Description:
Layout: E1 7-11, H1 15-26, E2 30-34, H2 38-57, H3 63-71, E3 73-76, H4 79-83, E4 88-91, H5 97-108, E5 116-119, H6 126-129, E6 139-143, E7 153-158, H7 164-176, E8 180-185, H8 192-208, H9 214-225, H10 231-238, H11 240-254, H12 263-270
Parallel strand pairs: 1-2, 1-4, 2-3, 4-5, 5-6, 7-8
Antiparallel strand pairs: 6-7
Helix pairs in contact: 1-2, 8-10, 8-11
Bound molecules: acetoacetyl-coenzyme A.
Residues 51, 54-55, 58, 60-61, 122, 145-147, 149-151, 193, 196, 228-229, 234, 238, 242 line the site of acetoacetyl-coenzyme A.
Amino acid sequence: MAATYSKVTVLGAGTMGAGIAQVCAQAGSTVVLQDVTQEFADRGMERIRAFLQKGADKGKVTAEDQAATLGRLTTETDRAQACEGAGLVIEAVPENLGLKNGIFRELADVVGGDCVLASNTSSLALSKVFDGVSGPGRCIGMHFFNPVPVMALLELVRTDATSAATIEQVQGYAQELGKEPILVKDSPGFASSRLGVCLGLEAIRMVEADVASPEDIDKAMVLGYRHPMGPLKLTDLVGLDVRLAIADYLRAELDHPGFEAPALMRQMVADGKLGKKSGQGFYTW
Length: 285
Ligand code: CAA
C-alpha cells in the first residue's frame, strides 16, 4: 500500500532528523533530508546508513529493505527546494523558538496549501512555533523519541487550531511508521518531557548530594522500576545541553522548582560534557 505521504521533507539532519528521515523512508515515502550545509546533511545520511547496517546485522532489517530505504533518501541544503512538492514537512532543527518560527513562516508560502507542517520540538509551545504561519489547521507537533527507529511512541501535539483532518491523517501515518501515537494538548513539556526531564533533573541533584554513584542511581530505576535505562544514562543519550534548554524553558513556563537546572548540569554543559555525543557525560562513552 502506498504511504499517506509520497514525499516527506525532514529539516535538520541531527540525531533526531536522521532517525525521522529513516523511518519515513522505511515506510515507503520518498524523503529529502535537509540541513544548512552538505557536511551536516551527509553526516545525517551516515547515521542512517550505520543504523540500517546495525539493524541488518541484528536481523531486524532485510538487505532489500536496507537498499530500498536508502534509495528513497536524498539530501539537500536549500530549504525551499527541499520542501517542493512535499505532503509533509517535519522540522527537527535545534530547540530555538525564533529559528523554528522563522522557518515555518518562510515555508508556509513555499509548500502547497494542504502540506502538513510538523515540528519535532520536545517542549516548546506549538502555538508559538506556528505563530503567524498561514494555514494553522495543518500545523501539528510530531514528537519522536531517541533512537527514533527503535522507540514505539510518537507524541502528537495539537494546538487549538490543528484541524481534526490533520490529526486523523497524521495518526494514520504514525501507524505506517510503526509507531503508537498519543494525542496531547499543546502544554509545556507535553506528556513526555514534563515527566521525563523532571526525573532526570532529580537524579542529577542526587549526584550533587552524593546520595549514590550515577551507576547506582541508574540501577535503582532499571532494576527497581524496570526502566529500560536509568535517568542519568538517558540524559547522556539525549544530551545534557538539550535537556538543560528544556529544563530552563519548563522552569519559566511551569513556574515549578522541580525544573530548576542543577548547578552540576550547568557546569558540565559549560565544560563540554554533553553526554554520548561528546564522549563524556555522567558516563564515559
Ligand atoms: N535497527 C533496528 N532495530 C534495532 C536496531 C537497529 N539498528 N538497534 C536495535 N534495534 C532493536 C533491537 O533489535 C531490540 O529489539 P527487540 O526488543 O525486538 O529485540 C531493540 O531495538 C532494543 O535494542 P537493543 O537490545 O540492542 O538495545 P537495548 O535493549 O540496550 O535498548 C534502548 C536500547 C532502546 C536505547 C533502550 O535502552 C531504551 O529504550 N532506552 C531508553 C530510551 C529512551 O527513553 N528514549 C527517549 C529519550 S527522550 C527523547 O528522545 C525525547 C526528547 O525530546 C529529547
